[in-house]
């Protein structure tokens, strides 16, 4: 229990909160207008106290995303002070109804606050609730109901925070896996060339026995550098794989895309155009992976599609991949809910390219990717 509390105390702030959004200004404006209407329409005692209390609760909404603890301290502090002052002589007309906006601050605290901020803010929130219940205690059932209503925004904020954090964690895992796969392919490509350099260097040393010693020394340096580079690359990939077995299968390329068309329903038409022989192996492997993922997504999710078209077009400095199916129109969000598209986008970005996916102009789903032939990383 103590360890769990320590972890909660040390928890960082939840990411994803913008500095301030237009919805906050709209909400504040609406609540201020309702406060004016309420002051005119109702008979309110302690008006000089009720108005500042409402303004504190409403104004704190503007910093609820960036400074949730400060927002809670300002709003709940004002409400707590009024509750304590009115315990001995409680009047139901004390306070404006718009002061209930402090519940939004409870949600914001548990949604975006750090562990320390949540712990400190909850002390103030619970104290305010206890003071308010003590001031107009009626029955046990009503007291429990008020407590549940008062604390429900905190629970909701915590649940949304956990869901958002889990989503971000899974997204990071997808990106990490894609980076590891790309690292393996980079290793396979570089290892091939470095191994060739090492072999040529060794042969050069044998042939150059009768040549000046400078040539032998140069070849020795080439051999040593190539061998160390190969060892370092293997160590890096072994670390990234975290103990997984090494996959010795040759990596796929653009020419292997045509194999994806065999045995699929709906059928797949593959078209390779333009200069594609000068692709770097890493870029060719990436184009293959993007096409494979796009076809898999279309086969699984397209509705009533009769054909999937894959076009790979090479130009002087880039390669263009387009995968289109003719499924039912307006099937939106088909590829955006899973993590496959996240990995595809990450792979394209790592190689300096772009990827876009969405509903086609008339029917189905379209994946459009452009990668530089050089494979320049971002």
Instruction: From the alpha carbons, calculate the radius of gyration and give it in angstroms.
Output: 32 Å
Structural class: alpha+beta
Low-pLDDT residue spans:
332-337
Helix and strand element order: HHHHHHHHEHEEHEE
Q: β content, as a range?
A: 5-15%
Integer count of domains = 3
Tally of DSSP β-strands: 5
Number of helices: 10
Strand order, sheet with most strands: 1-2-3-5-4
Account of the 3D structure:
The protein is of the alpha+beta class. The protein folds into three domains: 2-137, no CATH class; 177-241; 254-372, Heat Shock Protein 90 (2-Layer Sandwich). The protein contains ten helices and five strands, in the order ααααααααβαββαββ. It has helices at 2-10, 22-41, 47-59, 68-86, 102-112, 115-135, 140-207, 213-241, 281-301, 340-350; strands at residues 268-273, 308-314, 318-325, 354-359, 365-372. The protein has a five-stranded mixed β-sheet with strand order 1-2-3-5-4, covered by helices on one side. Helix 1 packs across helix 6, helix 7 (140-207) packs across helix 10 (340-350) and helix 9 (281-301) packs antiparallel against helix 10. The longest helix has 68 residues, at 140-207. It is elongated, with a radius of gyration of 32 Å. The protein starts with a helix and ends in a 6-residue tail after the last strand. Mean pLDDT is 76; it is low at 332-337.
């Amino acid at each position: 229990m103590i360890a769990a509390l320590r972890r909660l105390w040390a928890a960082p702030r939840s990411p994803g909160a913008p500095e301030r959004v237009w919805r906050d200004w709209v909400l504040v404006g609406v609540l201020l207008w309702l406060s004016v209407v309420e002051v005119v329409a109702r008979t309110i005692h302690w008006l000089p106290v009720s108005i500042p209390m409402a303004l504190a609760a409403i104004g704190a909404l503007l910093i609820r995303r960036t400074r949730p603890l400060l927002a809670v301290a300002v709003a709940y502090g004002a409400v707590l002070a009024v509750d304590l002052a009115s315990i001995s002589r409680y009047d139901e007309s004390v306070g404006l109804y718009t002061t209930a906006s402090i519940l939004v601050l409870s949600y914001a605290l548990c949604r975006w606050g750090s562990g320390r901020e949540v712990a400190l803010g909850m002390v103030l929130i619970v104290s305010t609730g206890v003071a308010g219940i003590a001031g107009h205690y009626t029955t046990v059932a009503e007291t429990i109901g008020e407590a549940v209503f008062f604390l429900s925004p905190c629970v909701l904020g915590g649940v949304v925070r956990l869901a958002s954090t889990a989503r971000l964690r899974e997204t990071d895992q997808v990106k990490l896996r894609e980076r590891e796969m790309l690292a393996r392919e980079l290793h396979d490509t570089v290892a091939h060339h470095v191994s060739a350099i090492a072999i040529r260097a060794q042969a050069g040393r044998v042939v150059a026995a009768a040549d000046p010693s400078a040539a032998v020394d140069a070849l020795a340096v080439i051999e040593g550098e190539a061998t160390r580079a190969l060892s370092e690359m293997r160590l890096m990939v072994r670390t990234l794989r975290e103990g997984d077995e090494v996959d010795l299968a040759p990596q796929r390329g653009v020419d292997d895309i045509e194999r994806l068309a065999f045995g699929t329903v709906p059928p797949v038409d593959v078209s390779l155009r333009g200069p594609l022989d000068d692709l770097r192996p890493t870029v060719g492997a990436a184009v293959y992976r993007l096409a494979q993922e796009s076809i898999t997504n279309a086969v699984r999710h397209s509705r009533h599609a009769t054909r999937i078209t894959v076009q790979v077009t090479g130009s002087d400095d880039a390669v263009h991949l387009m995968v289109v199916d003719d499924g039912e129109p307006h099937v939106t969000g088909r590829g955006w809910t899973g993590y496959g598209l996240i990995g595809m986008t990450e792979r394209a970005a790592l190689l300096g390219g772009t990827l876009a996916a969405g509903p086609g102009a008339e029917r189905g789903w379209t994946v459009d990717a452009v990668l530089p032939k050089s494979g320049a990383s971002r």
